[in-house]
Give the backbone structure.
Amino acid sequence: MNKSIIYQLNIWIAEQLKTIAPNLYKYKVKFAESGEATLEMFWKAGLIAFVIGLILGTLLVVTKRGGIRRNPIVYHLANTIVNVFRSIPFIILLIFLIPYTRAIVGTSIKVKGAIMPLVFGTVPFYSRQVEVALSGVEEGKIEAARSMGSGTLGLIFRVYLPEAVPALIRVTTVTAISLIGLTTMAGAVGAGGLGSFAINYGQNQSYEDIVNVCVVVLLIVTIILQSLGNGLSRLTFNRKLITIRRGRKTGKAAPAASESITAES
């Protein structure tokens, strides 16, 4: 029964698509492949950029003047790298990195050739976002943890990152949405994905329905990412309130901030 319903639903969707976007219906297989390519570029480049950007952003906060581990040489080196790559428009960065991408991964086209430029285009932006998020952590909490004997790693993993979780979620959401835009731009130079599909099968052949559907799909993805990020940010922002309520239900008071830092130290 369930299979029959799904089959009928697929037929109905196909008929609606054929009516609303006949040109897209002709290239429905290519459209699905392009969607998969965009998703692959997004999660692979996003995962790499998340790790590198988080490390680089944390390094900027820790080694800056007034940081917990001031190091002018490391700070200026990281700051220069971020500034240089942030100042280059992504479409120019794509072209600039073509020989290096080809030398490293063996190709400069398709998904494989797009990962490296996407990482280079995303990491500087995300690093600055992480720097701003971590800089918002209250100095009092940092000093309290330091006075209790926490070292550099202890301050990073027990104070900076936990306290900045809501802000980190927000900036990660902004970066993820920006990365979606970069994947479509990468399609202009042969990276594949929805951007390439919209250009080659929509704009170049004057098929407006293909371009319109690609725009709607990307809009829906953006709305989903933003809603998910907002929801997670609200949940983590209220984590202390949830802890207090749980403590009241069990008849125990929630531990004070200084007590939790002491326990972690």
